[in-house]
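During the second half of the funding period, the structural biology subgroup turned its attention to how the target accommodates small molecules. The most pressing case was magnesium ion, which had performed well in the primary screen but for which no bound structure existed. We therefore specified the complex as follows and requested a full 3D prediction, including the ligand pose.
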Amino acid sequence: MPKPAGKTAATLAKKLEKLGIRSRFDLVLHLPLRYEDETSLTQVEHAPPGVPVLVEARPVRAEIGYRPRRQLTLHAMSGDTPLGLRFFNFYPSQVKQFERAMADALIVRAFGEVRLGRFGAEMLHPRYKLVTASEPLPDSLTPIYPATAGVTQPALRAVILDALRSEPIEESVPEPLRKRYSLRDFPASVRFLHTPPPRVDAGQLIERTHPAWQRIKFDELLAQQLSMRMHYLARRSRAAPPLVTAGPLLKHFLSAMPFALTPAQRRCLEEIMRDIGQPHPMQRLLQGDVGSGKTILAALSALAAVDSGWQAAVMAPTEILAEQHYRKFSEWLAPLGVKLSWLHGSLAKKDRQSTLRDVAAEGPGVVIGTHALFQQGVDFSRLGLAIVDEQHRFGVQQRLALRNKASANSIVPHQLMMSATPIPRTLSMSYYADLDVSVIDELPPGRTPVRTRLVANGRRSQVLARVREACAAGQQAYWVCPLIEESETLDLQTALDTYAELQAEFPELKVGLLHGRLQPAEKAEAMHAFKDNQFQLLVCTTVIEVGVDVPNASLMVIEHSERFGLAQLHQLRGRVGRGTRESDCILLYASPLSDMARQRLKAIYENADGFAIAQADLSLRGPGEYLGERQSGSPLLRFADLEKDEAMLDVAREAAGLMLEEHPAEARAHVERWLGSRQEFTRV
Ligand code: ADP
Ligand code: MG
């Protein structure tokens, strides 16, 4: 970082940090958003309307006027044409500045649109400079940078130019690779983008398709690919217990399973088994749409660990889901004599401690819980496999905790992550490139697709009639509300109000209530009661969003569906259609719909397939929001656009492989240059 001396430099550095600029290279990479052409002068009388141009004029008089509002006007003559420069926000010192300029016979160069005002040609709030008539015009376009409050464009330009000039910028990609991929010179590319010559193709610069831009984007993608690959290889090189994949428990369970695996489940199981049989940690993401049957694969993998004399841990994002897993796993595995422990929030201290002691002492078995499993002093004696369900729900910190826990020992457990959130191709090649992925791409047989209906709030009575009818026929229904307490700003019906309303509406039904503010034990109780069909109608908030499995529930009503995200709607809808009966999901909405909400509802209405929904979600929100900071953890791409630059992503991936192999030191330097300290946050 160039350092003009003293306090101003320190304040500037602080402001630059807000722009993410911490090093000299960050400055070099702070690339313009657009440019202004001040390389040639335009005659005032020939200035095209609506196009900013540079004009020159001789100041004649500065005056402060009050009509129609307070303003400063600099009257000037451009050749024989009078020109007024008008400023509504100005400093009193500007008047003096203009007067001094007149005394010194300076001229004004103003950049902006020339328009015809009441008194002839004028410019509103032009950018201007007072110069001697012999001052040369700039020989390159003027860059306009992304800025923050407090850093002016001229200040940014000065520090960036200084950074470009102070030391040579190094090329980070070795020559053979530059040749192979026909890459432009990097130093020339950045210099070009900061100071493009006049008469370049402005469209190519703005659209970022110019070859100089291509080089920058390539380097960025290359850094991302290298970093992912390096993380992958580093973790891969650790030692893990090779697990027996055809042990007695596993064989026994496979032959006595309640159903046959689908071909897709079988393929994914093989991929998992191949990995966990290796002496290196598996890092696999098992991805499958809601209801595709990931849990049974988790159970089978856990059995392999137990068969081999190791422990398996299953981590779920909510207490409800952890308990459900505990019950499912108990039903499947306890008959085989597998020891299961459940660590949950409402365990009494004494029970918790004895469970912890068991986990530490016991050896083989399955431990199930929320992320607390990897946080609060749980000491696994022989953890061989860590399973993370609904991994996208965990934050970066929690995943880091798991990773650190895992790498504290010389033996690293295998990791199986599961998610129903499908990853579009570009994302799986970029942000998820450090994981191996298995996809369950079919649902178990006998499922009938959920019918989705969009119903305006005005037709609520018809929806109530539908609920009455379904429950009378022995089915069960969810009624999902967005918020739990009355909020003054949001006109949402609360779960509590809805609960009261629906109880009054359906005196003949038993209605349950489940929301996030209940104690874990109360939540569990409500869930059991619903599962046992003690309630026909469950009023709930999004706490049921992930994983909950009650096959007899075949109707779901979602209130204010316009307020939910696409992934959330898909997850919610996945709670029905789990039995063999035809199921319905009714999306109630309040008009008028915002454009985004309309598109979301259209996407969920038209698509049943989670992959298509994820793709729609990605294109509606863009990767930044789609991944969310907690989801991605890794710095998002600044320059490359995964959709537009998809072809380049393929090339960068190949180049990363080659570079790591043939030029490992340069590869590390390239990653350091681009990602530096941000690497710690790369996905775990
Ligand atoms: P998810 O992938 O959303 O976690 P689950 O594992 O909860 O899905 O499975 C959904 C339901 O399908 C469960 O009731 C499960 O027992 C059942 N299931 C899973 N695999 C099969 C299969 N191959 N055949 C029939 N039912 C299955
Ligand atoms: Mg699940």
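Two results from this model are relevant to the next phase. DSSP finds 23 helices and 22 strands in the chain. The pocket of adenosine-5'-diphosphate (ligand 1) is lined by residues 259, 261-262, 265, 288, 290-296, 420, 444, 547, 549, 578 (CB under 6 Å).
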